[in-house]
């Protein structure tokens, strides 16, 4: 395989899985580790990837990657997280579902739930849940973020302040080593803080790739989260912080049955 085709395929793998590892690529393409490292370095120099120990991840910046790419990244992990989260949501609950492709996956797993009231600032979530006639849906209003169907701003916050949620299910763009939840849009700060104040329980749904990314805006902390559903064991320092803060970490492997693999 030529270098250009190999690098194209490496980039497609990174988009699908969130990161690539040298040893995996060596096996996949049948070339030396030195060749793969050179490919990754050239992709990094071109701005497509960011080198990390043992491989590379999608480049993070002040701008998030496109919605379609995010939706197609780590689909199996998101589905497993969504199933585990939805199983824990009882019928008759009042929910908030936030912006993000993983929260949209949660919505898809709620189509069999009954007597739900779901408030959301995510147009995609509302469209998904419209198929469930046992679910009352309230859209928050606000400024439309065309890139992903999110509603943000002061109007969004003011509407959310009128509700008291049994559970708020939120996502984030990145998670820092100190447990901070990060995003790309400063207008989400007020929305996220309002959600956390108005929820009896706050649940975070975020796959393992969020530990490999960065974003410029702090929207909260794992300290504010009651349950954290993710797809791989947490970094040791983050796990220690979760224990100190009383945040339950539920690690769900995509290939396993979520209810069997969830761990508090």
TrEMBL record:
Query: What Gene3D superfamilies does UniProt report for this protein, alphabetically?
Result: 4-hydroxybutyrate coenzyme like domains (3.30.750.70), Winged helix-like DNA-binding domain superfamily/Winged helix DNA-binding domain (1.10.10.10)
> Would the keyword Transcription regulation be found if you checked this record's keyword annotation?
yes
Give the InterPro entries listed for this entry. Carb_Metab_HTH_regulators, DeoR-like_C, DeoR_HTH, NagB/RpiA_transferase-like, WH-like_DNA-bd_sf, WH_DNA-bd_sf
GO MF annotations in UniProt: DNA-binding transcription factor activity
Coiled coil feature spans: none
Cite the entry's keywords alphabetically.
Repressor, Transcription, Transcription regulation
Q: Which residues form the HTH deoR-type domain?
A: 3-58
Report the leader peptide range.
Answer: none
Transcription regulation listed as a keyword: yes
PROSITE patterns, alphabetically?
HTH_DEOR_2 (PS51000)
Name the chain's protein: DeoR/GlpR transcriptional regulator
């Amino acid at each position: 395989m030529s270098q250009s085709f190999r690098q194209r395929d490496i980039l497609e793998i990174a988009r699908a899985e969130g990161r690539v590892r040298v040893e995996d690529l060596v096996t996949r393409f049948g070339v030396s580790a030195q060749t793969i490292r050179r490919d990754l370095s050239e992709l990094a120099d071109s701005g497509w990837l960011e080198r990390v120990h043992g491989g590379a991840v999608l480049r993070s910046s002040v701008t998030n990657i496109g919605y379609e790419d995010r939706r197609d990244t780590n689909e199996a992990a998101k589905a497993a997280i969504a199933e585990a989260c939805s199983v824990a949501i009882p019928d008759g609950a009042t929910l908030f579902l936030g912006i993000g492709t993983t929260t949209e996956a949660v919505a898809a797993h709620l189509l069999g739930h009954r007597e739900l009231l779901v408030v959301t600032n995510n147009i995609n979530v509302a469209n998904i849940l419209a198929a469930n006639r046992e679910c009352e849906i309230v859209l928050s209003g606000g400024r439309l973020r065309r890139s992903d169907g999110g509603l943000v701003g002061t109007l969004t916050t003011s509407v959310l302040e009128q509700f008291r949620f049994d559970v708020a299910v939120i996502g984030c763009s990145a998670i820092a080593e100190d447990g901070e939840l990060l995003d790309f849009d400063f207008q989400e700060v007020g929305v996220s803080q309002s959600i956390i104040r108005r929820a009896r329980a706050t649940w975070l749904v975020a796959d393992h790739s969020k530990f490999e990314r960065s974003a410029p805006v702090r929207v909260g902390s794992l300290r504010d989260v009651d349950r954290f559903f993710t797809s791989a064991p947490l970094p040791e320092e983050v796990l220690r912080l979760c224990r100190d803060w009383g945040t339950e970490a539920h690690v769900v492997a995509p290939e396993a049955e979520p209810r069997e693999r969830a761990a508090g």
